[in-house]
Amino acid sequence: MAGNTVLITGGNGHVGFKVLVKLLEAGYTLRAAALDPKSKLSFVIVPDLLAPGAYDEAVKDVDYIIHLASPILSGFTEDQFEIQLIQPAVKGTTGILYSALSILSIKRVVITSSIVAQMSFSDIFMEETGKVLNEASRISDPTGPVANEFEAYSNSKVRALNATEQFMTKEKPHFSVVHVHPSFVIGANELATTVDGDQHGTNKTALGQVLGFDMPFPVPNASVHLDDAAELHVKALDPKIHNGQSLVGNSGGREGTTWGNAIEIVQRHFPKAVKNGVLPNSGVTLTKKVVIDVSETEKLTGIKFKSYEEQVLSVVEQYLGLIGVEAA
């Protein structure tokens, strides 16, 4: 498959950029947007992702598509949830699928989803039910009021996943679809040039407590190293992985991540920085239990997920580098 052309959307994001790098390392030719030119990288402009046929030009003559582009938490208010967060996630996904219908060279579309697409918001963030989330987990589109932006984000992922599977049933396309469901992605953000960039998104869940901040609510015990989340997207192109398969990215087995362990990890690896106050190491992130079984993903891909300790070291070492402190 190396040498085939992959259209990647969202390649300028935390996960997307790492996917782009890994695809280039694997020998693929890429088509992306808004990135510096490289020998195996070409560009296409898609000015309005929600316009009908927005991706029609972008998908021409490609062999694969990896669709990561989707709205993220950006301070949306309740009146914006549906229009700014949920609908763009759904329409952006179905739009690229419909554009791909007429391109016979396309073999597979890989779509970045999330574990929050596979279990109710309540089960993941509020109640400890003992339910097991795995590759086959699915839920119906949520109904009723949305309490906060993260619940709206979760709803966007559920609805995009369900819309994709409805598309596959209705249209029966010539290409296959594989879904990638990372948990909370932790790892050095290669696009970050400031400490604010390093703390952006899910990285702050691990790093925030190291910098002395408390998380205002318990966080599900679900994390995955950025390297592994990106590698799952590359593995998803393998034709041995069948149409409709979900690949779930999560570390720590069924026990998952204990977020507060970052304090001990940092004390052990960076005692000087803690002693000098460079790393206050005094915050609190409480953990909420969710049972996630990724054994099928490990079997299909051969990936052994990196530990939470490796995730913490990745973001802390980057933080120290950005502020000019030796990581010792």
Specify the helix fraction band: 25-40%
* Major sheet: arrangement of strands: 3-2-1-4-5-7-11
Count of DSSP-assigned helices = 11
The overall average pLDDT, rounded, is 93
Structural class: alpha/beta
Q: Whole-Å distance between the termini?
A: 41 Å
CATH architecture of the domain at 5-187 and 222-250 and 291-305: 3-Layer(aba) Sandwich
Largest β sheet strand count, sense and barrel closure: 7 strands, parallel
Could you name the CATH homologous superfamily of the domain at 5-187 and 222-250 and 291-305? Answer: NAD(P)-binding Rossmann-like Domain
Using DSSP, what is the number of strands? 13
From the spread of the alpha carbons, the general shape counts as: globular
How is the CATH topology of the domain at 5-187 and 222-250 and 291-305 named?
Rossmann fold
| SSE sequence, one letter per element | EHEEEHEHEHEEHHEEHEHHEEHH
User: Given this structure, which CATH class of the domain at 5-187 and 222-250 and 291-305 is correct?
Assistant: Alpha Beta
Strand content: 5-15%
- Spans of at least 5 consecutive residues whose pLDDT stays below 50 are 34-39
Rg value: 20 Å
